[in-house]
């Protein structure tokens, strides 16, 4: 990986954008020129990368012209408005928003699962939702072996899923602060909120994303997915309890072996010794942690497990940078 890149990062001053810069540096992506972009009110700010300060511009300034690629995390409205323009100008766009995830012509990619979809030659790639990424990373090796038919999943999603405002809101509530501009519909401190996003047909948007995106990434358009998404008073990392049903009989010992060998997955499954995935130990890590693997006696086609990952890293920034790496290594930019 030696080709130097001219790389735009859209939303560079936000929580995910800053994490993208951190991951780019950690993974030694050969960025020759960085173009940090944000909203017009961020003009004049700088971000640190590769030992120097880079000035922030707005998309309207069009400094992105001539870039090889762009990592974007500006929100769906901005992505819909600008990504077609960038793509038409020859910039390969890896978008962290929901804007293009359901577009049948846009690959929705978790590199450990479906990297082959990046070979279609398009200029737009969608980064999946954070809760979907960690789920499919754990499901994929099991599906390949046993044929997945049904997923019942409850998510326990951290405050940082709502960005820096979510973290600040939770921290403020812990100190007794009262605000009228919370990103959450109810107080989060000492509470659980089973509502993330707008509601449609009884399900919240975060739940629908788990249905649509899991089907698309796994290539299973008829997969039965029954989701419940819950916001919890934790700053970082999303957790998931998943009940799975397969076409073939499944051996939980074999399932552990498959997950142990799966790329990007770390097995933590010694409950008798208190070893299982937790947000405190997963924070700041790029892997998907899986444990509490168990099977109800007599239910030979089902499996239950617990999944935890850092939603800002593997759930957003790291997955996007991994997509960029794949494109670069395979000469697809």
Spell out the key features of this protein.
single chain, 333 residues, alpha/beta, Rossmann fold, Dihydrodipicolinate Reductase, domain 2, 2 domains, 6-stranded parallel sheet, 6-stranded mixed sheet, 8 helices
The backbone outline, from C-alpha atoms, is globular
Please tell me the CATH architecture of the largest domain by its name: 2-Layer Sandwich
Sequence of strands across the biggest β-sheet: 5-2-1-6-7-8
Helix-strand topology string: EHEEEEEHEEHEHEEHEEHEHEEH
Reported by name, the CATH topology of the largest domain is Dihydrodipicolinate Reductase, domain 2
- What is the CATH homologous superfamily assignment of the largest domain? Dihydrodipicolinate Reductase, domain 2
Give a quick rundown of the structure.
The chain is an alpha/beta fold and 333 residues long. The chain has 2 domains: 138 residues, NAD(P)-binding Rossmann-like Domain (Rossmann fold); 181 residues, Dihydrodipicolinate Reductase, domain 2 (2-Layer Sandwich). It has 8 helices and 16 strands.
What does this structure look like?
Helix 3 (130-146) packs across helix 8 (313-329). The chain has eight helices and 16 strands. It has 333 residues and is an alpha/beta fold. It folds into two domains: 5-128 and 316-329, 3-Layer(aba) Sandwich (Rossmann fold); 131-311, Dihydrodipicolinate Reductase, domain 2 (2-Layer Sandwich), CATH 3.30.360.10. The protein starts with a strand and ends with a helix. The mean pLDDT is 96. The strands form four sheets. Strands 5-2-1-6-7-8 form a six-stranded parallel β-sheet, sandwiched between helices. The protein has a six-stranded mixed β-sheet with strand order 12-9-13-16-15-14. Strands 3-4 form a two-stranded antiparallel sheet. It is globular.
